[in-house]
Known about the structure:
It is a single chain. By secondary structure, this protein is of the alpha+beta class. β13 (207-218) and β14 (224-229) form a beta hairpin. It is globular and about 65 Å long. It has 4 helices and 15 strands.
Amino acid sequence: MKPEIVHRIKIPIVADNVLSPQVHYGSVHHNEPVTGIYFNTQDELYGRITFENFDSLKICRGEMLPIDYDWATHERGVWIFKVENSQWLLDRYEYEKKHYGSSYEFGGDVEEMKTHFNHYIFSFHDQFIEVIARGFWFEKSDKTLFGKPLQKGHPFSTISDNEYSTFEECNLKYRYWINETSKKKLINNAQFCTQTIMEFALELDDKVRVDHTLTLTLDKEGNVMTHLCGYFGNKQVTFPKIATIEDVKPYLKKYMKEVFERRLKMKK
Length: 268
């Protein structure tokens, strides 16, 4: 096993270095708080960290990080860290692979835990919070975010509330929405978590439900990758660039033909 190495992650929000955070874990029912870390900021506002594909959580007392870190090189304002060669992450991967394998919750590909998940450490006064997740996002507000919905533009929110365009195949129609955020900003934000570029919803029997998404991620070397994903998050096609609607259409039109043929057999 290679030695664990701590890397700094800097975000434009700095946690208060005296006040303790609140940590909430659980599914959202009846406006309950979203799983995440809720904290006061250094500029006397309120912050929230939420997680993409949340896997594990540890909360410990202590002033020092649980892994050796050269404080002599520390950068002021940094309070988030990522652990390279994490033994905890490896243990979680081996557990998930042994017990769930191809039925792994997040899209069925447990190998993604090794390639895209991270072991994060969030450092507060006399305590630290460790999380394993695919990514995280941060928010700030002049009012507490505990129990509040995700803010507008949050990467985990749907973009299908905006205006949409359509295309047709086999008498079926697809609606699609395009994220209006600039490509430069999406790429920058992808260092923290997956970014949604487009959402797609097939119109069937007067019902519209998002069943495909086009997402943007960065690989370990920082290269841009976009993925056409199905309803359960499984990757169907990967593009080594920021894909366009024209790149995606052939795959969705093929799916539309399959749906049309199934419905024909079912006499719908």
